[in-house]
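Hi L., both proteins are below.
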Amino acid sequence: MKDKTILLFYLSLFFSRFIYNFFYTTSPILAKVYYGIIDFSLVEVYLYTFSLIGTFVSFFLFRRLIFRLATFFVITSIIFIIIIKNPLLFYLSNAMAGFSFGIIIAYMLTIASFYGERHLYLYSLTLGISTIVQPVVQTFIMLFMGFKLLFIFYLALSLVLFIYSLIQRMKDKKEIFNLKLKVNYGIIISILITISYVTGFTVISTFLPVYLIINHFSAGIAYSIFIPFFASTVLSRTLLSTIKIKNLEILSLFSIILTTLGFAMLFEQIYIIDIAASLILGISHGIIYPLASVYITRYSTANERNSYMSLYLLFRELSFSLIIFLFSFINLGTQLIVSIILNLILLLILLFLRYVNYN
């Protein structure tokens, strides 16, 4: 029975991440191409801001009803896009989707942690598989079928996700969030490496595809950069799911170095080089997310787990909102310079903390 429950969990996770990637990687393109919104990056700010609120809700409520309502709101948000081509309705749709996924992702991560540390790697591997399948399918639909069929496709998937939320068994917990959490080494390192994670994914998901469209690439070709990005994400998470990592600090440093290298390559603004940079950034992206989860797991008890995971996700969504908002005022070249400097600072901080006995 337990094996069937775990299998059901991973199926549910696969569909939730598939739809999640649609919103978080396609919204800037839709804003620019489909809705003609000039400040296209602000749509992503809405997504992450309301995701932040949803994550905050997950601090205090871990209940089946909340999970089911969140998946229902995902259906509603896609229907809003289909009903009428209206920018205001598009903003509302992204707000609802962001709020819903702030809850869904936090819940899924907590459930995975209850199955054991190895399942945190499998959790990330499942996300990776979903994220590589999604851009391949979506690129094909965008190139040959158009936006309308794309919306209908995701509406069908959201209905499947809602059905899974009705079947998924999870125990309701009250007051699971602990307001007296200690700031330990695990949460500090998780937050630091997540800043690197956020800068890398922000440039790739929000700005680079739109700049490719501005440089006369089709929306389908521009979106195709997610294929190598998530392919290398899957590769790195596959390795992490099959081996036991002992030295987390070395892996943390390695991921930040890769992020910095990927940013440096994007200065050329040549499509082939962008593909190679996406591959490199995908490796660091694949490493950091599960690595942060493992840090939290090793430095927390089972009773503290949801609180620490929620705190981590809260910081991640807040970082996305702030960095996307700040980057919306500068061009891609300046974004890359700022990102490189920020990651070099993070590298120095991690090297310092490695030799400090933090209690």
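That was the first. Here is the second:
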Amino acid sequence: MLEVFLPLLYLITPFLLLIFIIIIIPTNKKKSYTTNKKNNTDTDKKFEEIYSNMLKQLDLKHLEELKKNAIIENNKNAKEIKLMVCSIVGAFLIMLILSFFSIVFFTIASVFVFAVIIVVIAMPYINKKYNRENKKSDIELYVEQYKNIIIPEFLNQFKEKINYMPNEKIDKTIYNEAEFEKYDTYYSEDVMKMDLNNGFNVIMSDLKTCNTTTDDNGHTHYHELFKGIFTIIEMPKTFNEILYLKKDKKYKRKNIIPKIEKIKLDSTDFENYFDIYSTNSLITMQLLTSDIMEFFIDFQNSTGIDFELTLKNSRIYIRFFSGNIFEMPNLTESFLDKAKLKKYYEILNFTLEFTYKITNLLNNTEY
């Protein structure tokens, strides 16, 4: 038995020591903490007003205290991990030293090592169960503030009534109706709903789709296809034609190519941004006026956010390639991620403006 285990023990010991050195010995590099500072020239007055009003309503001192506690707990968790590594590496070293004496010492050392590993791994979970049975961790409390306080307060600054439901999701069957792309996995959360005065209803959600592959070892790998904001605009009456604005030139990963006519417009500039497909070219030209096309291009150029659009039946579907908007900022960053809030403001503002623009066009279009 000793002849079997000793070569293996000698082989893995250097790797354990290397892990010990990497994790335990700190580096002298100082972390750089960046803040999202932008000049007024980079943000319009309306956003600055909304952001300023939000700050007045928030208890910043309380949020800073929560963040401080979360950082303390995070550092404590890191120390526990280091302790686990130290204990396991130390136990293996003891077993290695005792193995030089006799098989009896080796057997005793083996039992000791496995006992140490079990105790070290189990202790954090036992501690959490008995000491925090009915209490949320400081990190959990801090994360909750972003979705339960900061985001709702930000949305409260808009004149439109926006209902924010962080635990709700949009069903994938609704996303599939837009025919954006084929995918294997689907994830949605952070739903917002608005009932507008013009008869339109707007639903928005953080959304992510992935393609999956399996390697020769049976491991599953996830390849991101889309991550951003998915928007549904419900119109007061049904639209009998179908219109797609797609980014086929840029996003070719499993995109669904419509089996309908590809439309050529007079504006070659607009066609550099979108591939247009429609069941009715005349109505498409009535909807894609010079004002609408300029509105779309200006939004994309000013924000750098790509988007695709589908108009069919009584809904307009838009997906914005914005990344995850509602993800909690890292503990090393400011809990008020102004750049991320600005990005969401731009998407929300674009959506609202578009509904008002399209209302007049649909009312004046025969379909």
